[in-house]
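Technical appendix A lists one of the benchmark inputs used to test multi-chain prediction within the project. The record comprises three sequence entries:
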Amino acid sequence: MKKNSTNLRLRLPALIFASEVVIVVLYACFVTYDDHANALLQNNQTRHMENSFYQNYPFFADIQVMIFIGFGCLLAFFRRYGFGGMVFNFLVATFTIQWAILIQGFFQFFYDGKIHLSVLNLINAEFACAVVLISFGAVLGKTSPVQLLIMALLEIPLFGVTEWAVLKYLRINDAGGSILIHIFACYFGLGVTFVLYRPSLNEGHPKVSTSYQSDLLSVMGTLFLWVFWPSFNSALTFKGDDQHRAVLHTFIGLSASTITAFALSSMLSKNGKISMADVQNVTLAGGVTVGASVDMMISPAAAYVLGVMGCFACMLGYKYLSPVLAQKLRIQDQCGIHNLHGLTGLISSLAGICAILLATEETYGPSLYETFSHQAPPEGDPQLMELQQLIPDLEAGLGRSAKEQALFQVAALFGTIAVSAVGGMLTGVVLKLPFLASPSDEQCFDDEVFFTVPSDYDCVNVLSETRKAENE
Amino acid sequence: MKKNSTNLRLRLPALIFASEVVIVVLYACFVTYDDHANALLQNNQTRHMENSFYQNYPFFADIQVMIFIGFGCLLAFFRRYGFGGMVFNFLVATFTIQWAILIQGFFQFFYDGKIHLSVLNLINAEFACAVVLISFGAVLGKTSPVQLLIMALLEIPLFGVTEWAVLKYLRINDAGGSILIHIFACYFGLGVTFVLYRPSLNEGHPKVSTSYQSDLLSVMGTLFLWVFWPSFNSALTFKGDDQHRAVLHTFIGLSASTITAFALSSMLSKNGKISMADVQNVTLAGGVTVGASVDMMISPAAAYVLGVMGCFACMLGYKYLSPVLAQKLRIQDQCGIHNLHGLTGLISSLAGICAILLATEETYGPSLYETFSHQAPPEGDPQLMELQQLIPDLEAGLGRSAKEQALFQVAALFGTIAVSAVGGMLTGVVLKLPFLASPSDEQCFDDEVFFTVPSDYDCVNVLSETRKAENE
Amino acid sequence: MKKNSTNLRLRLPALIFASEVVIVVLYACFVTYDDHANALLQNNQTRHMENSFYQNYPFFADIQVMIFIGFGCLLAFFRRYGFGGMVFNFLVATFTIQWAILIQGFFQFFYDGKIHLSVLNLINAEFACAVVLISFGAVLGKTSPVQLLIMALLEIPLFGVTEWAVLKYLRINDAGGSILIHIFACYFGLGVTFVLYRPSLNEGHPKVSTSYQSDLLSVMGTLFLWVFWPSFNSALTFKGDDQHRAVLHTFIGLSASTITAFALSSMLSKNGKISMADVQNVTLAGGVTVGASVDMMISPAAAYVLGVMGCFACMLGYKYLSPVLAQKLRIQDQCGIHNLHGLTGLISSLAGICAILLATEETYGPSLYETFSHQAPPEGDPQLMELQQLIPDLEAGLGRSAKEQALFQVAALFGTIAVSAVGGMLTGVVLKLPFLASPSDEQCFDDEVFFTVPSDYDCVNVLSETRKAENE
């Protein structure tokens, strides 16, 4: 087995089978059913339709479509890397989910010596999966499946720890995951691609181009992400009016950013034409920007403005920032995740902080202490008992003021950026190890390296080159 | 900026940004949360899982898929206009939704000086969106995005007024929107295309053709519409058995029209071959024809027959009526919306009237007055109190007889046709204004006009022409 | 009309219209609404949101996507048979559903002289539909639509009888349909293809190949099946924790089999490259293998192992068994249904039997007698009354021991194989009748036979042949 060979024949099975053995042993030792999935705990008090399953499964199903079909199609935009985009997405997603069930399980669903499994864990695992897939966007086409699996293997524990620390100790408001999902994934991915820097790619690569069909397929991915993004942003909010608002805001933010993307795309192109890359990516910016404040009473108009702002940041990032990052800072961000997840995540975090500072009992009533649970009075505080008469389910909080909460949000933001960027760089170092089947520069963005391709594989290419030659 | 230029660089951003300013100001002044999305109104009586959100969101999500992916793929059937079909659908849909939330909000969800927003408004806005997208079908490939947005801008207020007048004053039964959605959208679209008549297109246009891939993509759109149509037809019925029947009838009607479409397609083609255009369109006829009576006790067999009848009408319309409309009446109906939405809508309206006339208390029991709410006894009528003992939630109606109700249905049908046709023609006049980037005849059905296209864009075309030449 | 003509002009309409007349008469005479869809039965006790519709519709909608889009795209993998795969799937599915509503209705939903229709019947009909579509996989590209409809016409009654006999008399545990759906469909399909044996196809067929786009489309189908498979396997389980477990197991089983498929695909190919055919098919094996025990307390680790085992069986089947079946046993299984549904179904059945034998009250508590309803004490047994105090809804069973139940499972398995294989062969004999528009060997796998194809139809083919010639 040559050091630089891209042959997967031994490497990929070895990695997968080894992981499977570890995973199945850990599952056997540590994973059991949650009370709502455990036959033993059913009794004459059980009402089957009140099983938590029915509250979570519809959101889980929607997020499944986003992860497997939305991301899968979106990443298939390269002319010669459609298999890679769609199929490595599939591989990485299924691998990540198995692993995240364990890691997140240890941190969040572990008691009585066991991880307790329900659909709620699966939703969390799909969020972890979204993190890895976003990071994957930075190195799309430049990594082997072996490298991608190792990236997932390393990213998930770091994500699990960060998530646990932020949720348990900093205790922030971030219903849509702007900080924990988008910011983490973005800076991790940038860290990886920074280390995997390939100077020659800055001079252009013949295979970095789309085809008519790949552009259409990628837009389909965008549409699936768009359609189910409200479910993504609302899956883990409080039930009831909080979840309701999360859906409304996401929908409004997305539709505002979509029409803005069309305006900017035609305005910033030389000949006034719309670019498909913008339609595929920039339209989605609003879904991220509303994330951190998505369940709050920010007003529909604010969601609209957030959508527009996110779109501007994302579009200007693609146009002016990405080239600088690639040329000057050796950050080759293939899908522009810094624009779609980083810049928008920052805006979202800021908006979340503003929304926290502006939240009053006048607007929220006593449920202020539900949405901002950490500002609820602590256990034993007489004010808590008063509030519990108004909202019986209210849990004790930490008695934080809004300003304190804002500081914790800031801490979470910068902490997450630091941890993910450093973690990403270290992961990048690991991915540079030999024997990981990393493709050479010429082999990038090319399905032929890792797939048996059909005979018409580069026909379209040959044809369009012939035509170009004829035209010249 | 030349009068006839198709350059979008100034026009599209100007229109979008101006609209956004207006929309965001109106949202800020007038749009607030519905009680079910308002944190302030939660108290110790609130049961979160009884939030109206949970009743409506699953249907909303299904309709989202229809609007963005179903319509988007279906409209991408032209060989060189896949971007236009799929992407302008995306643009128009997101624009329309924002606008419809305001317009329908003023007419239907306005009280205490505010529009109250919930997922229910979003469902209504998506229906408004379906109206614009159906009308779009008549002018597909012949209009610029600027024209399409202006069409939406004008169509939505007219639709909003019509919907409000029909629902408030005529008070008709039309659960699946056969009259308000399909008929309105169809005649509006025909009015627009009548005014935008392009004589040269009647002689055939080289770009009016499909490719193997575009045909497959378009069928996928059909399949998504097919699969979620039951949700569309049942989203706004009464909950419970009414919604249950709506799903059963839609499903049966659609499956009946689908197999009929295959039979007719092979029967009416010269060589007995199936046409993909028929598979893409005619299969869906049954979904429209069951619309007006979809929640009534019409019997499964009647839903079946309606599906078959709708399919016949639609197929014969494509075969024999559309050419006449284009050649003789200067109505160039690009996607044949008159067949799929007009003729079927008429059949559906008639079927609805029959179902109303045939409805008896023997079949429906007291819930007759729920399904046919306007035939319920008016406030103060002693019969109302009797009925309310049987069905506590029953609301007072207008005490109409079935025949009276039938007349109102007829009035609504003809009123809608008249208003939409005239409105469409006036809109067409506006769309003929200069500076709207309208493509010339040769530029029709061509993505290159409004999009940066990949280098393989017309390869397939070149190739198939080469092949044709070789064969000759 | 020539005996061997493939012209559909008379044959297809004749068959469809005749079926429609029969179906509509039977619907009119025998099909009425279920109590939950019947307006007459609503009274002041009715709570609309407790209508069974709301428990079943979300699962129905998911399965719809699988049947129409999942199967449709998956079957479109041939380069020149995309229309056939996707569109005949559509035709066969809609036809089958109508027919299955009647047949299954007579066996399962018939009382008071009528078939009572609800969404539950539709779910059952879609399962019947899955059966026909799986069998279709064995003869894909080698049959006319007329033959396919006749196959459905014959397969559904046989399936209906088998299902009824097994559920009513043998009363087995098979929540995911491993025996009744996958095994039945597989051996029926193999029976058909055995009789329709075409020796010349064993020497290779020029049109048996994929294209870059068809491979991508087919993977999309796989992804849709993958995403909604948990709904498929859990749609007909008990509500509550049983359904919850079914989703967890399916998800875990699928993700285990997916990563295993990637490992095996690269390991078993000469150059270590991943084969798209494996990604399209073998990844799904885990969904079948967990089927028969999907609602039981088998533990998450066991679901994982089942997924891996299913994947091994399926992959080795494709690699080593399918060629033997085709060459030696004249079983030309076009999509390899014996690997994806047969071998995995056998493993699943065995796993189900083990799970039954290992089930104890210690693990399940009293709800053992719910999940394994036939082991519940029979009517009149004092133990039943004790159990009913713990679980009030518990129904009387047959008082079977676990071993007895295991024997019934074995009987069901072998009975199903025998019935379906013989039924498939007899159906094959019928399909050999003249006048059914069966394509000749050269016409196989070719859309041009039954569809009007666009002018670029075989461009890709021409091109890749040109290229091949150039390279030689």
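Residues 11-471 of chain C form a domain with the Ammonium transporter fold fold (CATH 1.10.3430.10). Chain C touches chain A through 78 residues (CB under 8 Å). Comparable benchmark entries are summarised in Table A2.
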